[in-house]
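Milestone 3.1: sequence recovery, worked example.
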C-alpha cells in the first residue's frame, strides 16, 4: 500500500507545482485583447478595469500601456480600482499619462479603500441585499457604512487628472466621434454608497455608462454599460468554477446584457488581487484582458 501512496502523492505534488507556477508566473501577465463589434458604438474604444497598480506590477502596467497604445485608441475608458491597498500605490498612477486617446475614468472600491478584504466583501453582500436597484427607486446609500476613505478617493482622482483623465463621479460628458454624439455617463463607486444617476441627461446618438461593480446595474436607458470589479473570478477551476462565488461574491465576466440595442459587458480586468497573504498575484483559466470596441 505504501508503495502505491508515495507515487500518487508525488504525482499530485508535481501537478500542484505546475498549477501554482502557471497561475503565479504566467497567466497573471498573459494579457489578451478581446475585440467587440457593437453596432452604434464609437470606433476604437479601449476599455480597462482593475489595474491595481503598485510596486510589484509597475513593469507589467507599463507593458499594458504599450499594448493599449499599439491599438491606436481614440477613447480609453477605465472603470475603477486603479490602486490596491496602500497610499504608496498612488505614485504609479502617473504611468497612465502615457496612454493615447481621450481618457475617462470612474472610481472603484479599492480607490475608496472600501471593503478591500474578504471580510469587507462579505459584509457588502449583506448591505447590498438592502439596496434598491430599480430605475425609479435606485438607492445604494445603505452601502455607505463609513468604512472607507473619501480622502483617498479624492487623491486618486487628482492623480488621474494629472495623468490626463476626466474622472466622472455621477457626471456625464458628450463625446463627438465621426460626427455622432455619444453620451458617456460615469457613475461613482457603489460599494462606497456613492452611485446615483445624474439628472437631466441630454439626448445623444448613443450612450455608454461606466460603473465599477456590475451587481449594481439597474435597467437604465443605456446602449452600452461597461463594468469590472469581478476579475472574472480570477481563479476559475474546472467543474467547480470560481471559488469566490462560494462566498457570495460576484464572479461573472463577459456579456451580462446582450440585446439588439442594449448591452452590458463585464471585463476580467487587467490586474490581479494578490493571494497567499498578499505574496503573489494569481490567475487560472481567467487571463487578464484589454477590451477593444469597434477597432
Amino acid at each position: 500500500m505504501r508503495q502505491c501512496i508515495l507515487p500518487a502523492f508525488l504525482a499530485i505534488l508535481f501537478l500542484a507545482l505546475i498549477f501554482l507556477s502557471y497561475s503565479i508566473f504566467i497567466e497573471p501577465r498573459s494579457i489578451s485583447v478581446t475585440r467587440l463589434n457593437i453596432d452604434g458604438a464609437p470606433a476604437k474604444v479601449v476599455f480597462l478595469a482593475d489595474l491595481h497598480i503598485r510596486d510589484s506590477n509597475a513593469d507589467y502596467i507599463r507593458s499594458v500601456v504599450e499594448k493599449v497604445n499599439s491599438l491606436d485608441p481614440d477613447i480609453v475608458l477605465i472603470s475603477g480600482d486603479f490602486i490596491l491597498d496602500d497610499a504608496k500605490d498612488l505614485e504609479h498612477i502617473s504611468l497612465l499619462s502615457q496612454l493615447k486617446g481621450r481618457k475617462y475614468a470612474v472610481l472603484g472600491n479599492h480607490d475608496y479603500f472600501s471593503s478591500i478584504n474578504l471580510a469587507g466583501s462579505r459584509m457588502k453582500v449583506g448591505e447590498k441585499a438592502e439596496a434598491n436597484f430599480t430605475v425609479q427607486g435606485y438607492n445604494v446609500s445603505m452601502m455607505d457604512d463609513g468604512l472607507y476613505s473619501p480622502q483617498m478617493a479624492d487623491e486618486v482622482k487628482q492623480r488621474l487628472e494629472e495623468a490626463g483623465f476626466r474622472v466622472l463621479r455621477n457626471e456625464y460628458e458628450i463625446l463627438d466621434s465621426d460626427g455622432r454624439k455619444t453620451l458617456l455617463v460615469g457613475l461613482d463607486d457603489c460599494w462606497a454608497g456613492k452611485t446615483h444617476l445624474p439628472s437631466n441627461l441630454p439626448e445623444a446618438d448613443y450612450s455608454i455608462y461606466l460603473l465599477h461593480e456590475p451587481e449594481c446595474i439597474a435597467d437604465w436607458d443605456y446602449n452600452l454599460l461597461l463594468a469590472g470589479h469581478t476579475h472574472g473570478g480570477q481563479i476559475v477551476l474546472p467543474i467547480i468554477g470560481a471559488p469566490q462565488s462560494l462566498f457570495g461574491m460576484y464572479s461573472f465576466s463577459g456579456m451580462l446584457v446582450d440585446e439588439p440595442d442594449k448591452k452590458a459587458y463585464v471585463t476580467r480586468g487587467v490586474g490581479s488581487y494578490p493571494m497567499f497573504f498578499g505574496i503573489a498575484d494569481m490567475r487560472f483559466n481567467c487571463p487578464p484582458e484589454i477590451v477593444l470596441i469597434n477597432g
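The domain at 2-293 is CATH 3.60.21 (Purple Acid Phosphatase; chain A, domain 2). The chain has a mean pLDDT of 92.
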